[in-house]
Design brief:
2 copies of one chain form a homodimer.
Chain A: H1 16-26, E1 35-36, H2 39-45, E2 50-55, H3 65-73, H4 78-83, E3 85-88, H5 92-104, E4 108-113, H6 118-126, E5 130-134, H7 141-151, E6 155-156, H8 163-180, E7 185-189, H9 194-206, E8 211-217, H10 222-229, H11 252-261, E9 264-268, H12 270-284, H13 290-301, E10 311-316, H14 323-331
Parallel strand pairs in A: 2-10, 3-4, 3-6, 4-5, 7-8, 7-10, 8-9
Antiparallel strand pairs in A: 1-2
Chain lengths: 338, 338
């Protein structure tokens, strides 16, 4: 958690203007995803509480990632566009970059580990990207990326650590608040910090005193440790069911932004995440990937304190979960149907 | 299929005015469910086609059934309300009636077979209804219901065969067309015919020449046979994965309405239904019960002919599928993630 009385470490990296500009670029490209509500959830949250779910699992490519990727690539020079881009990801960022590149007519090369789910390889290729597979154990991803950027002149599109990426991700919160009005609490998953820092920027500009809470799993608590230490702490690559937040360290720019504007980071257990996936399936009929369910796990935990009368925004960040993982989670317990 | 040149069998049972009145009654009671869209589906349907899914699986109680049940019960006399209502259903109608009764402060007794899924028993009781279980093999549901209506003076709320039920169900199509504009094709599942006949009434009033298509599974083709015969044909109780349309005969009033206004009825196989459930999960992240996926199965079959430039409305009727059935369907094949 941040210490409220400590001075900001540095000025903010991005402002609400950057996010409004990103929103204009994304108009007609990214879906304006629906906001979902549920009386069951409202009642579970607290008397008079209202929970608004921003349904980024219904976004193009299955997650919010197209927002940042497109906002980055739309600002490349003609020369950079002509040479193409490279990204590495075994997950949602791969699909976000591939889709954004197709929209912009830019050639995309995506480095994916050879053991990435076949469905994600197929989806990424389906968007027209060239996929290069590498052996996680024997090859260095960074080395391959370096060769591609230097030798082929490709521009790297990072998954979170760039102001343009952060501004793009923040458009999700901007749409949410434009649609439902001011919020008292905003919850997002946090991995590298692109989504959290972008959404935080929006909330601080539009609902000054709201609590903004990044949520990670217990094993992946690099943000909690970093905020406590006051500097970016690196942890061993975490093992967690929330595969979208298996980062070992906060991003430089997202960390600076969070330090400047102030957000909390709290954790949930993998079991709580799985229960949240089941809850979303049984009660809201939504298929959300474990990472997307991380903030819901915190909401359901009761550890947020008294939410009476509060208006709570929750970023459901993505829905790309393989059928075998999903069925495994669903079969652990059979929830009630309502 | 109806023969277009045959004269109407009778005047319509209900009109658009009945449905508008039902919509006023339902205001603030039933959710105005969202309309979902998908570029993947649009592209699969045809060049320039637009498909609009009315998300009744996100309705209160998990299906459209609260619409008709509430519209029926809101029109009972004070005396009838004081005595209470009875309904029989192992599925969505039970929850719809229980929920509507609670809203109206009416005591509800629901007859459910002893082998109904425990989750549905719990959900129905959770809405405050008294559940009476009976043995499907040894007891007559109709006999028990007759005793309850005669001895206790309870009013029967039928699942489809009443003009008030039909008018209530039609509000789903009214909301859809109010939100997205005129449609060229409207698809609904058809069991007893409450939803089909209600939606048909709306479409004929607002988009005169649209195709309205009820969809049933091959085993449950009582509507296809009945429309061919020109009279209500009774078939053996069908075995089909679409448990919401296991009716053996069209309802009297719905059949009259369909004959009067003209709709087609087409069939899909159970395997096509399961593939549609998987498609909705993988591509749209929605959990829809097999019955709700029946019209999607027809849409994906290619048997609707050329849909170039067409605007197609699809009623996703419900989402109440047990975790074990859902996982069974999802595990049959692992679809691509996109």
């Amino acid at each position: 958690m941040t210490t409220p009385d400590s001075p900001p470490a540095a000025p903010p990296v991005i402002t609400i203007s950057d996010i409004r500009a990103a929103a204009e670029r994304l108009h007609g490209v990214a879906h304006r995803t629906p906001v979902l509500t549920s009386r069951t959830v409202d009642q579970a949250a607290g008397v008079g509480a209202h929970v608004f779910f921003k349904a980024e699992h219904l976004q193009r490519g299955g997650s919010f990632k197209i927002r940042g990727a497109y906002n980055r690539m739309a600002q490349l020079s003609d020369e950079e566009r002509a040479r193409g881009v490279v990204a590495f990801s075994s997950g949602n960022h791969a699909q976000g970059v591939a889709l954004a590149a197709r929209e912009l007519g830019i050639a995309a090369t995506i480095l994916m580990p050879a053991d990435a789910p076949k469905s994600k390889l197929r989806a990424t290729r389906g968007y027209g990207a060239e996929v290069i597979q590498y052996d996680r154990e024997r090859e260095s991803r960074d080395e391959i990326a370096r060769r591609l950027t230097e030798e082929r002149g490709l521009t790297l599109v990072p998954p979170y650590d760039h102001p343009h990426i952060m501004a793009g991700q923040g458009t999700a919160a901007l749409e949410l608040i434009e649609e439902v009005g001011p919020l008292d609490v905003v919850l997002t998953p946090v991995g590298g910090g692109g989504l959290l820092s972008g959404c935080l920027t929006v909330v601080r500009a539009l609902c000054l005193d709201a609590r903004v809470i990044g949520v990670e799993t217990e094993a992946a608590d690099d943000w909690v440790q970093s905020l406590q230490a006051g500097e970016r702490v690196r942890i061993p690559v975490p093992r967690t069911i929330a595969d979208g937040i298996r980062t070992d360290q906060p991003g430089v720019y997202p960390f600076a932004q969070v330090r400047a504007l102030g957000a909390e980071v709290l954790t949930v257990s993998d079991d709580e995440v799985k229960a949240a996936v089941r809850f979303l399936a049984a009660r809201m009929k939504q298929i959300v990937e474990p990472t997307g369910a991380v903030p819901v796990a915190l909401l359901l935990s009761g550890r947020l304190g008294d939410l009476t009368g509060k208006r709570i925004g929750v970023l459901l960040s993505g829905g790309n979960v393989d059928a075998d993982m999903l069925t495994g989670i669903l079969m652990e317990a059979e929830p009630d149907t309502e």
